[in-house]
Amino acid sequence: MLKYAANLSFLYTELPLVERFAAAGADGFRYVELHEPYSLPPADLRNAALQAHVQTVLHNTAFGDFAAGERGLAAVPGREAEFEKQLHAAFVYSSQLGNKLIHVLAGVADAASAAARATYVRNLALAASEAAKRGITVVIEPINTRDMPGYFLTTLEQAADIQDAVGLPNLKLLFDCYHVQAMQGDLVRRFERFRDRIGHVQIAGAPERHEPDTGEINYRYVLSAIAVSGYDDYIGCEYRPVRDVRGGTSAGLGWRHTVAP
């Protein structure tokens, strides 16, 4: 059975982060994920999750200086020491929050650069090796060039090539339907092709990134196919609610009854 996780970096943003756990729990979510937990002490987030009776399943390594255009550091040559600090922080938070998935952000780098690829492979090998000691799976996510221009990792094929180069079993792909639709399309066939490599799935309507029952993706079909494939893990709900029309995150959750198997 698919397990839906509310992405607290996109959902319930009308509330402070620490209060979003309770809001998600009140709406029936039992799992949550988030991008960056690092603005608050991990104990505060852990307690919020415990009180809300929700389990954190995934968070990212840090973006870095977002205003300066940083989107992670794993594929950025010369920043290896900073990446290792980011990785250590991610493990500290996962130890408190209990999540067994960490998304390692590649960052902005030239995809054709041999130095960037070598840096990425080296850093991912370190991340996956250290993660394995903690029972954690590392995931990497192709991101579309419209939302993140210059991001190093953009296609599933490129991600699979990197995965093979690292060669560690706890390095998996994050299949974000929204990003795959923007870059490559053919969601069901691509999911089937990469199924054994996938460690996490995320959903959002396309192209606006609103609720999954909006836009051009037929999620009733896509999610049913994912379930039939045998994938029975988490589906991250990483979309931006249409507040001006539906009245906030909670008002837009009707999709769970119309498109979610």
Task: Please count the beta strands (DSSP E, at least 2 residues each).
Answer: 8
For the record, the CATH class is Alpha Beta
Fraction of residues in H or I helices: 25-40%
Shape: globular
How much β-strand is present in the residues? Answer: 5-15%
Please identify, by name, the CATH architecture.
Answer: Alpha-Beta Barrel
Number of helices: 10
What is the succession of H and E elements? EHEHEHEHEHEHHEHEHH
CATH homologous superfamily?
A: Divalent-metal-dependent TIM barrel enzymes
For the termini, the CA-CA separation is 8 Å
Low-confidence stretches: none
Structural Rg: 17 Å
Main sheet, how many strands, which sense, barrel? 8 strands, parallel, barrel
Helix-strand category = alpha/beta
Notes on the structure:
The structure is a single chain. With 261 residues, this protein is α/β, with parallel strands linked by helices. The chain has one domain: Alpha-Beta Barrel (TIM Barrel). It is 39% helix and 15% strand. The chain is built from ten helices and eight strands. The protein has an eight-stranded parallel beta barrel, surrounded by five helices.
